Amino acid sequence: MRYIPATQQDRAEMLEKIGVKSVDELFEQIPKEFRLTQPLNLPKPLPEMELTALMEQFAKEGEVAAGKTSFLGGGINRHYVPATVSSLVSRGEFLTAYTPYQPEASQGTLQALYEFQTYIAMLSGMDVSNASLYDGATATAEAVLMAKRINKKGNTVYVSRALHPHYRATLPTYLNDIGVAIRELPFDAKTGKTIYDVERMKDALCVVAGYPNYFGIIEDLKEAREVATKVGALLISVTTEALALALLKPPGEFGVDIFVGEGQSFGLPPSFGGPLLGLIATKDAHVRQLPGRLIGRGKDKNGKDAFVIVIATREQHIKREKATSNICTNEALCATTAAMYLTAYGKTGLANLAKLNAVKAFRLRQQLFSENLAFSGPTFNEFVVRTKLYGPELLERLKARGIFGGIALVGNYPTMKNDVLVSVTEMNTHKSMMEFVNAFREVTK
After folding, report:
1. Widest CA span of the chain, in angstroms?
2. Rounded average pLDDT over 411-416
3. Terminal Cα distance for the chain, rounded
4. pLDDT score of 315
5. What pLDDT is stored for residue 328 in this prediction?
6. What is the β-pairing status of strands 407-408 and 234-239?
7. Among 45, 153, 309, 393, whose CB has the most other CB atoms within 10 angstroms?
8. What pLDDT digit, counting tens, does each position of 35-44 carry?
């Protein structure tokens, strides 16, 4: 952002232009008790040069994973992004593209989103995907709302406690006022997999399970499908590590009704926790209940391929009572980035990358931490380590050695005081893994 301060004259001209005498008049609609009665306690403004130096100083004080040995994951993973992706997505045609309301002027953007949808449908094994949602957490909530529109029988959402805690925390925000209850399904203390009790799930609207779950355990979607069918519920699978889809059996092949996920691993850096990329896909029969936008391909009057928005489900586009979502936008640039990333790797390349992640995680898990595993269930590239040390303390000791060792689970799972979630990707070299192991052994003596 350019450093252009507004002068008193600038402010006066703007106020005159919009027809008010003071800035206070702009806030007359806000009750007085909610307005500031005195200026904020902020330092005096600085010249651009001094402000830049101050921000650089702040930046140096922060800690980042780049350049350090990091095994952080838990829904935001560190993967290598090919230079071609960053270069292409930085082009003005994509970077500054607005909502493609006018297809005749937006064919490039529409085609990119169409290809994104195609990739997600292929990876998930579902019939149709939309043009993206905000992130995995809100996509999960949107999927539950979608299930409610489809299934008129049940009134309770059964969510695996092994699902990402942020995703579970988001659900009540969406469901509190629509007469839908939320019940959590426990997980097995040995395998880390979800436990289903069919007899107590007769009122099920839908079943939500991770694939893999938050502990990195690959859930049995076949069992989940059988349970959901028995209780007359829809099955929603959630994938927080999108790269796993290149190696695991697609959710659609298990008969999943709605697939959702987090697409950050497809070309988006961890950054400061965003922006992220929500994924959602479903069966043809449910396409009218998809939130967000759906891009379609047809032919123009000359017989050439033409891309258009075929479904737009928010109240801006259709009658309010028919809207299936209040989503105000989508992650178009992030979705375009993901499409470029997937194109760059291709089907074989992506599968090989997924295998590399799985192999590295397997080596670290089995050969180096086999005596400290919390669960025995199969994993992809994340697993939970259990030691005699309090989880946060273990991480602090590792951090003192320049290693981000993972995520302590005690904050979201109070009984798992000594457990840490470890994530391994292609970015972790053999050297970095050995540094982790040696430091781990030293701090846990």
Report:
1. 74
2. 97
3. 50
4. 55
5. 62
6. unpaired
7. 309
8. 888 889 988 8
What average pLDDT score do residues 292-319 get?
84
Report the pLDDT value the prediction gives residue 105, as an integer from 0 to 100. 81
Compare 324 and 215 and report the one with higher pLDDT: 215
CA atoms within 13 A on the CB side of 148: 20
Q: Which residues contact 128 (CB under 8 A, 6 or more apart)?
A: 117, 121, 281, 282, 283, 284, 287, 290, 294
- Looking at residue 196, its pLDDT comes to 98
User: Among positive and negative, which fits the CA dihedral 355, 361, 363, 367?
Assistant: negative
The strand pair at 234-239 and 204-210 is best described as parallel
The CATH number given to 83-342 is: 3.40.640.10
Token code pair at residue 350: 């992506």
Helix (H, G, I), strand (E, B) or coil at 382: strand
Q: From CA 265, how far away is CA 212, in angstroms rounded?
A: 14
Contact 284, 290 (CB under 8 A): no
Q: Where in the chain is the domain with CATH 3.90.1150.10?
A: 69-81+347-443
- The structure's pTM equals 0.88
- Give CATH 3.40.640.10 domain extents, the chain: 83-342
Q: Is the Cβ–Cβ distance between 261 and 245 less than 8 Å?
A: yes
Q: Check: CB of residue 109 under 8 Å from CB of residue 100.
A: yes
